[in-house]
Amino acid sequence: MTVEIEPSSGGPTAYVERRKIDPESFKAVSTLLQSQSGSDELAIKKIGLSFKSLSVTAPGELTTTVKTLPRAILNTFGPDQYKFLKSKIFGKFHEDTNRNDGRKLLVDFTGLVKPGEMLLVLGRPGSGCSTFLRTAANRSTLDIRGDLIYGSTPAPQFERRHQRETIYLPEEDRHIASLSVRQTIRFALRMSMPTRVRTKQVVEELTEVIAKLFGLGHALETPVGGAFSPGVSGGERKRVSIAEVLAAGSSIQCFDNSTRGLDSSTALDFVKALRVLTDVGQKTTLATLYQAGEELYNHFDKVLLIDQGREVFFGSTTEARAYFEDLGYIPVPGQTTAEFLVSITDPTQRRSKPKSHAHDIRSPDDLAAAFRGSDHFKNLDREIQRYQQFAAAEDKLLPGTAFNLTFPKQILECLVRECQLVTAQRRVYYVKWITTIILCLSCGSVYWDITNTGQGAFTRGGILFFALIINGWLQFPELFDAHTNRSVLERQGHLHLYRPSAVAIARFLVDLPLIAFQHVIFMLAFYFLTRLQLDAGKFFIFFLTLFISTVNFSNLLRMFAYYVGTLDDCFRYGGFSCTVLLLFAGFLIPAKDMRPYFGWLHWINPMYYAFENLFANEFTDLTLDCSDGNLIPGTGISINLANQACTIPGAVPGSANVAGVDYISAYGFSQSHIWRNIGIMIGIALAYLLVGAVGSEIMNFAPQGGSPLVFAGSSERRKDRTGAALDMEKTAPTTSSSDVSLWSEKRLVTENAALTWKNLTVDIGDKQILKGITGYVKRGQLTALCGASGAGKTTLLSALSQTNFAGKLGGEVLFHNKPPSAEFKKITGFAQQMDLHDGTATVREALEFSALLRQPRHFSKEEKLAYVDTVLELLDLNKVADALIGEVDGGLGVEQMKRVTIGVELAARPRILFADEPTSGLDSQGAAHIIQYLRKLAHQGQAIIVTVHQPSALLFSQFDNLLALSSEGEQLYFGRVDTALTYFERNGAPCPSGANPAEFILETVGAGVHARTSDKGSDWSAKWKASPESRSLNDEIESMKETTVSPSLDEIDSSEYNASTLLQTRLLTTRMIKNQWRNTPYVYSKIWVHVISAIFVGFTFFKVGTSPQDLQNRSFSVYFILFLCNAIVNVILARYFFASLYWQFREGPSRTYGWVAFVSASIIAELPAAILVTVVYFLLWYFPSGLPNSEAGYIFLFLLTYEIFQVLLGLFMMALSPDLGFAGNVLVFIVCTCNWFNGIIVPYDQIQVFWRYWLYYLNPFTYILGGMVKAVISNVAITCSTSDLTHFSPPKGQTCGQYAGPWAASASAQLLNPNATDECSVCKWTSGNQYLDGFNLGDGGILVSKWSYWGIFLVFTFTNLGLVYFFTWATKVKRWKLFYFF
To answer: What protein family is recorded (predicted)?
Structure first.
């Protein structure tokens, strides 16, 4: 149904006046709508939403027990695979008859939202608001029953034909952090605008229009940022999310708590813009907006109230209050309508008249039944019937495309964004390219004078193999970005900006020039330094093969990132694929020698085809010389070439040279396969790309709501608990906590001291964020810090608390009349806006951890733990005390998480509590609970300062003092809350009757989306400076200085931490081990990689013999453990990085534990897993390989030391590096260098002198390989197989013994048929020691005793240990910048 309409009767001017929207915003919305329609007139699709008896069910129980490591291991053998197949494959064809057995998230919802109407969805946390919005937007993957109709089209059909007409904006802000605000909005516009109007000029103009509409004009060139990435403020990031969604355009739009993080004025501006968009564009708008003020509420047409998944009201916003009052409910004086409605669903908050209908209502089902029996429901049912008849009579919607742009254009636009992303993250690529250059110069120079002898031929093969390995391994760090940005891909895919597969293809395309450039750098240095054949054709084939093989490796890793849920799993499968690719590439084991049960893998291995190409390309037209020790016999009487044979594979008896083609054929390769192999590799690369693209389309890891609470204990321990999670937000408190005391008799007498600040300024870079702020906070007072989004509220808290403060502080800050000392941090608590917790810890464990480490030393352990019970009771967290906290997308709900964040700080018994937006993301009831808890703390003597964004009038009245800031960081007011309105009225701004004081103040001083372009803030700042209140404040602070008693020496604890380093280490180690036990992917991935690798290696080299080829297989069997390093250490990098974030951003600044404890615990916690994987790998590799039983203990000890070495190497790399990408590239450099200069692939004698006499000896891998290879080969008696024998003819008239006997005796060779006269058979070795001599590992080699190798490797391990401590101290504590050029 497409019609052309006028915005409203009376024209735009009348509309603007009626809605109180500024003309510029109205014009901006109209311009946006016109661009989306693709014409100068508004061609609008009018699609309403109706639903009857709508129910949503989630599988599983209300609560569950955490899945620990043993369960994860057992599930490997069937259950996990069955669940995957059942949900992803069988579920597509067979309906699950047990779906009704799940949890009811929504029950019998009925309603209607017409085009041009706005529906406000209200409910307490856990009621089902998010589930309803996802269902209404056709985004839910849960079981949906009932009628859900868009216009006249049922939901399944609408999803197929009109996917672009519905959008859902989740509560969490997910963006590519390194892209700018302009790039983010511009991309959304280019993907959503019709092609005919999508010109560069129009897009740029609209970008400016949207930025101005949402007050983002000043931040267009600023990165969007993220939780741990610098960028715009949290409120501005939320506005970017909203702008992106509105730019995408749709007829039915659902916003899930989209005002989270916005101040009340900015939230109101957003709703006004939404109102205009809905009216002018005839949109159907649904929104959950927590803490909705009265003016905001009045902008909506209808309201839906939900109570524990039950619909308890649906109707006009003007009728809702009267309906519940008629039932007998009584509003609290001063409550807004939204607060009153939500309070109805809270048994502890609602009030009712005696003997009324409301008095008899006890449950959500009773409320729902009352509504379904009301006239409102009957009228609603009739209205739905009339609308459906009207919609059926209208023209049917023409089937639309799911996406605005064609698939090729989607790819093109995504490619442009990928190029922008590369530019924004250029530092990572600089590191990769510098790493490549250094590797080329160092490793390539090793082969500067390589010979064409038999030993040179082996080394030349090693060159080719490592060329493939280096460039493949350099792609591993890209897994970090591929996994991190997947949530953005899913969200924008659901907005129908593009198909996720378009991004997959765009990433593939942008990789091509980057990989090509990487190989240009590599080839120019490596190819010529190694003196490979100088032929243009061979150079091109080498480059092309290497390029395609690296593309294969990159596509393979990206493919896994689309299919698995965690970064640990990405590296698990990446490590497994690395095992297969390298083991069956044809170098370590020639194809002809591969076991049949695994040998087939080389046919699907792109590395095999790449190695064959490089091998055949290099050795074709090359002649190998046998004269240098490769002729048998080498000495004797009257030696004639006709009576000698060459030991090089492919040699012909009687010839001193081996043709390259014969050498190639001896390994089962052929030069004629080169172009065939290139085609196969391209095909495999495209197959990886296709499978990855399919995975990006079908796999969805976004939370769908209905996640149960996860408990650490058994069901026996939680059988009486309630509070299960019914939605993303989970549950709210159901009872009020008792009046418990937080204060002990051991509190110090000087606790009346205040924290004062005077003329405080903060400079970050060249910009002054805060300008002359004055105020104080003292015991027993609750102070509110208000201001527009981006005003510097968080910066002020950080400066005062000295937590994560990175700017330059000016002015005066005093505590106890002295500048805060180093001990100040440990006596304050800072509840940050980001809820940073160890998600695998229970609520009780988190609070006990804080209490034991942060409470003053004079409290006993029993007192500290008892205090935790007090805090749990105070914050009403007893019911979830044994529940896992969980991550952002699961676990506890938003409000419970906020209470845990506050509880963790309270458990430390702080003298001053700072709380940064503790009510952000909560509904009005949840916010009221949090402020009530804080008010109770203040009554009990706690000093508290809180930043708040959207306080209601009731919440605002709970505070004692108010500090107001302008958007420019200037002070507007400090004083009593109850005198604030008097101050503003005296200065010419009287507050209207019934207005929310907080909203009034923010509006008065110029907050909102246009705050930065308004001069109101500066005007009010000048008024404050000249006011008597300002002078009185300064006098009061001076008076405090005179009356404050300085602490006695007995009260001063000068230690940096309240707990000893030993206790810190013990408790932190326990927490980390519990994390590994409960967060199974990490240790499980390490076990999985070791098990699969051990099976492949152990059974590929099954029962290895004692022939010369078997000796090489023994050494390669040992050598393969080095390939585990890259996969395992990358997982350690990621884990250590995220663990360090907790320490750097929360637990370190709060003085919970120090850097020594952090490093020590990180190391100790890794040891159990290191021992476990050592045992697993050893048992599955060593004994199947048939290596000597006598050396089993020595090899196990070396393996264990190596596993610990890997752990320390990973921690060292991460301590050294600024981020994961940098650490990953440095790791590749270290691993490749150590692999190259260990004397196995490049024998000792072949290493250039410059490197041989220092790098070879400084390489830890030299000693692990030397010791282990020596142990499994030394003194082994050689038994040659037929393929290892060398045959030659003796001179006429001589037996083999007469001719070659003296030479065989002197060369320690085996002459197998001394009496033969026609053909002699010689095995060139008699003992494994001869093989070791060729690698400088024999008795005359680098070391004599095998224990010497282990001892030196142990020294390297302890050196790593020292480096972890040193670089953590240098980079994380002292903030040394080790890489200034980045």
So the answer is: Belongs to the ABC transporter superfamily. ABCG family. PDR (TC 3.A.1.205) subfamily.
